[in-house]
Amino acid sequence: MSRSPTPPTQLDWLSLPPDDAGAPEATAPAAVPWPWQIPEADSPLSTLDRALARFLQDAQPSTEPRHAWLAALVSHQFGRGHACLDLDALASQPAATLGWEPAALQGLPSALGRAADDLPWCGTLGSPLVREGQRLYLRRNWQAEQQIRDSIAARLALPPLAPAGLASALNQLFAPDPLVPGPDWQKVACALAARQRFTLITGGPGTGKTTTVVRLLALLQDNARHSPQRRGQPLRIALAAPTGKAAARLAESIASAVQRLPAPLQADIPEQAQTLHKLLQVRPGAGHQPPPELALDLIVVDEASMIDLDMMARLLAAVPPNASVILLGDKDQLASVEAGAVMGQLCEGADAGGYSADTVAWLQSVAAVDVSPYQGAGGALAQQTVMLRFSRRFAGDSEIGQWASAVNQGQMAQVQALWRRSPRATAAASASVDRLEPTQAHDPALASIWQRGWSTWRAWLSAVTASTAAVDDAQALQALVAFNRFQVLCAVREGAWGVDGLNRRIAQALGLPTEGWYAGRPVMVTRNDYSLQLMNGDVGLCLRHAKGLRVAFADGHGGVRWVQPSRLDAVESVFAMTVHKSQGSEFEHVALVLPELPVAVLTRELLYTGITRAKSRLTLVVPATPALWRAVEKKVVRSGGLGAAARPAAS
Length: 651
Ligand SMILES: Nc1ncnc2c1ncn2[C@@H]1O[C@H](COP(=O)(O)OP(=O)(O)OP(=O)(O)O)[C@@H](O)[C@H]1O
Prior knowledge:
It is an enzyme of class 5 (isomerase). The chain is built from 26 helices and 19 strands. The protein is of the alpha/beta class. The strands form four sheets. The protein has a six-stranded parallel sheet with strand order 6-5-7-8-4-9. The chain has a five-stranded parallel sheet with strand order 10-19-18-11-17, sandwiched between helices. A five-stranded antiparallel sheet has the order 15-14-13-12-16, covered by helices on one side.
């Protein structure tokens, strides 16, 4: 079989150094038999995984077949979102680690971990693979982790900031609330973020991440305006999020939280947020351009759980070393689509706190908050990590909150009790969580869920389609708001319970065409389009505009952008979307549809993310309950070196 040349993207992906920087020289292929013992067609290894192994073998032949296996497995794990191949996990739990069926595992050689000891493609300057302890990386992932760790450590090592009058400002902004149990974590988060240049704030929906940050920004700006060193100059602040939708939502929540501040504190808080792609000038196909140098004093990034390794490394490199970085997110949500679980790993241990005696004493003195029950041996990062625990959205006996918490904590008995307690979806329109166990995808009860979910939007649509008048901007915005109140979320794309099939059947149930452009068609952009300024995940509605059929997108500034359907080459109907795509969005009412079988992607994180997209109503569509139980049991573990265990011990 001929050895195919390596595509340029693969070199880029390995982060190989230039030819003269120590890269292994190509030599004739070794005379060892190619090590795959399973037919290519049945192998869970992709062409790319094999190509990488071949490339390395060609460049620097090894007589040990297990070396090629290791290289292919590192690539395989990268493709599954892991930052590295965890050799311990591979040895102890190969099936769970690789996600392979028993038949595929039979082809796997034994003692692969031992073969990693003399792997020829790692260990030298610029080598394509890097081993750190029991973790084997593609060099680029290792570099990204290093950059993230170094940048965070450098920020945490700077002398603490000491905004004047911090204690009184905190007291002014955070009045005691007897309804909130335990320490005032919002006040703690604000205090810690004011003292150091890197802070992680994690919390479930409605726990007050935005409110806290807005109060922090008010406090810091007030301080800056009164600081003689700054001569009245406010801080330069940027707000960002990984997707267009998340950025728009952040801007909206910030604007509304600013309104609730005392008037003198409202000045100089930005109300525009941008995507990380735009801020960091990431262009598809542009290769690895150096990150821009951002001129700012502080950046707040929301939905940080969606940020992958590469993007986080780029972000931290772009922010000046003495500027503050505040990451907001929910550590328990689905990790990024691309490799890494940066937020989840950096926040490991956040539940327990792990605050040092110094931090506990400092918080007591400056914020009058007692976090001594959360004292522990966390490292420097733990001192700057806060978990907000009280949800004002899902407080008390909120059923969605109970579902979210039981699923998140893997409490199977509680999930089963909640399931039994939920009424059938069509019976009680007032229940905040209801459920349906359809026997087949054409179950008429499903059609009634879709019709009821979009009833306001459909009424609006029939009224405008009955009229010959064109739709104006205000009407288009109303239509988008009405449409976005309800959303069907699926765990998978394919099959009867996946996005593709459901989109068609929902359109039929609503009496709409299943193909082509028509007034009322909701679409989602599936690829970033920089010329149209549309981002992957943006949702628009096709409507009858004065110039003909146009797709209306909210522009994020209270206006509408109209785009000709013919210019949109990467869109799909969006009655249903995957839970992955829904990250960063919320809807009044969510119908969460599970597949019949417990497929690999159906995990606790996916369920939790889907459930928490619902603001006031959740309809669970579960054709077979074992899939639900299995998902609750299945927690995703992504291998990587940013977790607490890999970080330096307590400082
Ligand atoms: N300390 C507080 N006092 C009063 N209301 C608060 C407080 N903190 C948050 N809220 C209210 O709770 C709701 C949720 O707060 P916020 O939007 O800040 O949470 P979040 O964690 O950013 O939510 P999301 O999950 O939407 O990102 C808002 O209506 C906000 O006004």
